[in-house]
Design brief:
The protein has helices at about 5-10, 10-20, 20-25, 35-70. The protein is mainly alpha-helical and about 80 residues long. It has one domain. The longest helix has about 35 residues, at about 35-70.
Amino acid sequence: MTPPGYFDEASPQRMLVEYPLGRAFLEGVARASRDELRALQERRFRAVVNRAQTAAEQVRLTRDYFDALAAGVAPGLSAAA
């Protein structure tokens, strides 16, 4: 499975919902209680950590793939003699 690319992930509409501007900001996040802000920060932090873990897994898989290629092993090939 190919991971999504930048333009697959970038959504201006979704960003404006998550990070509102102007009046939407003043009527929403700017009026949030301390507990609501903390919950929002924790949700965003968890999302960043989850993304970092996914990226770390992709790095590991890529490294393993290229290590296998360097050893002469690849899908459909036997080990180099």
